[in-house]
């Protein structure tokens, strides 16, 4: 990855937000310090998370799992209330939403090939996510369930000296928390971003299986 004028994760987020696929997480791999059950599952609908300054996910707890679930153990606030979802009515799942060897890239990227070895060239700034194995998409349809939960408990989630700050030791601001309502999941991915304010340039990238 390349960085010249600013952090590569900032370029990545700014450029790929414009593509309309939700919040582009620069470091989606689960934290190795989290419970193995969470590492196996990955970020999912109902997770309350913080997007860190380096673009990774800081998982707090899931509102869609019981407080005694291995993923939530010793992580939920005293006011915790689980949200039950009916998978047949409240969720949507689209397998292979992103096809094999597909890419999501800023408009400045010129794709020269899309195979196990992928190459791109771009001018002064770009971001790209390459999905060698494609990706599935899952979204929450019953948004009201999450909205009602947030209205009841948001203050306890992250008002200073409440759960996220006092109990879990996070020093966060009011705009730091995200409640996941959808996600794209893949077995493998390649991420890159580049910024050079000195003028147009050409950069080539290759992904190897």
TrEMBL record:
Protein name: Uncharacterized protein
Organism: Piloderma croceum (strain F 1598)
């Amino acid at each position: 990855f390349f960085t010249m004028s600013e952090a590569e994760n900032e370029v990545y987020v700014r450029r790929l937000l414009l593509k309309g696929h939700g919040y582009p997480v620069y470091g989606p791999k689960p934290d190795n310090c989290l419970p193995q059950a969470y590492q196996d599952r990955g970020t999912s609908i109902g997770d309350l998370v913080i997007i860190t300054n380096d673009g990774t996910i800081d998982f707090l707890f899931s509102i869609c799992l019981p407080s005694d679930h291995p993923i939530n153990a010793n992580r939920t606030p005293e006011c915790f209330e689980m949200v039950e979802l009916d998978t047949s009515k409240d969720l949507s799942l689209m397998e292979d939403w992103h096809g094999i060897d597909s890419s999501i890239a800023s408009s400045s990227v010129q794709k020269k090939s899309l195979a196990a070895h992928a190459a791109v060239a771009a001018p002064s700034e770009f971001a790209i996510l390459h999905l060698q194995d494609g990706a599935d998409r899952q979204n929450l349809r019953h948004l009201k369930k999450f909205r009602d939960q947030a209205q009841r408990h948001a203050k306890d989630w992250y008002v200073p000296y409440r759960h996220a700050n006092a109990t879990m030791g996070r020093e966060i601001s009011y705009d730091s928390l995200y409640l996941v309502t959808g996600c794209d999941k893949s077995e493998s991915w390649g991420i890159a971003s580049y910024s050079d304010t000195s003028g147009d340039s050409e950069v080539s990238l290759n992904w190897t299986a």
